[in-house]
Amino acid sequence: MSTVIHDASPRTVSIRIGPGIWRWERRALAVRGILIVILLMVGAASLAIGTYQLDLSQVLSALTGGGEGNVRKLVLEWRLPRVLFAVLGGLALGISGAIFQSLTRNPLGSPDVIGFDAGSYTGALVVMLVLGSVSYATIATGAVLGGVVTALAVYLLAYRRGIQGFRFIIVGIGVSAFLVGINSYLLISTGAQEARAAVSWGFGSFSALGYEQLVPFVLVLIVILPLVAIVRRGFAQLELGDDAAKAVGVGVERSRLTMTALGVALTAIVTAAAGPISFVALVAPQVVRRLVRTPGLDVVSAGLMGAVLLLAADFVGQRVDITVGLVTVVLGGGYFAWLLIKEGFRR
Questions:
Q1: In this predicted model, what pLDDT tens digit does every residue of 194-243 receive, in sequence order?
Q2: Where in the sequence is the domain holding 73, given as residue range(s)?
Q3: How many domains does the chain divide into?
Q4: Which GO terms describe its biological process (predicted)?
Q5: Computed from CA positions of residues 285, 98, 218, 280, in that sequence, does the dihedral angle turn out positive or negative?
Q6: Strand partners of residue 4
Q7: In this structure, is residue 187 part of a structural domain?
Q8: Which of 52, 265, 256 is nearest to 158 (CA)?
Q9: CA–CA distance, 79 with 239 (Å, rounded to integer)
Q10: The pTM is what?
Q11: Please, which residues have CB within 8 angstroms of residue 79's CB and are 6 or more apart in sequence?
């Protein structure tokens, strides 16, 4: 049984659920509500608008098992998996970005900037071009391993009696540049047909994905997200400083390493499924921070913002016939340039 408690602060709302009391910022709750409404609207538009136009009643009827057979097939088998991939992939990237920006305490601390996307791409290229496999499962495995190995290398190279955020980013950018060179060498040293297929995968797209790829993606996500929720509370103490975190019994390096592994896993499973998708992890937490206006690690809002951004990018990509990865690069590149200029003036 839950009871709403009259909080002393007008900015928060508290609800007693059983023996525990949960507090939320009212502004954060409002932002999350708005993001969910936008997500439903863009999702409905993605299901309805296409080569074969549907109205909202046809979409709702198909989702509830009614309507004509060809409409159900169009909505449930062709368009719905793509929408779910965009929503869940954006959720994973937004949370991953929030983790790394909190870890590095820097708005540039994003898995695609630090080089984890490039590492996943390297792993997939090795599978496709060196091992000669075109199996989705082996490419996905290669992408995940590539991201994990890259994260481990960056962590070890940046470690000096602990992890310092700015050094972590600089080392990551250096490793990313090295991996871009490796990727270019792999592409130019192989046959044109194989290279064309690998480059196509590297643009990031949901067009070839269905329930066969969605089911394992969701299962992995179901394992990772509860772990993030468990570790998040201790990890949030690190934003107050290492000494403050140690004072309340938080294992500083253990928490950092655990959240790094979870953040890499969230990015890697998206890359493994759809190819590298840049800038969503970078942009989503920053936009949320400006909307919510509260310090701290808000993985829920960042995840919802990532889902909105990636679903909207895929919707736009379908209208102009380019991949979602290219849309996020174009839109995110402008944001990245603005962020670099702003950081430059601040220093």
A1: 777 777 777 888 888 889 889 989 999 999 999 998 887 777 777 666 77
A2: 26-345
A3: 1
A4: siderophore-iron import into cell
A5: positive
A6: 15
A7: yes
A8: 256
A9: 41
A10: 0.87
A11: 46, 47, 50
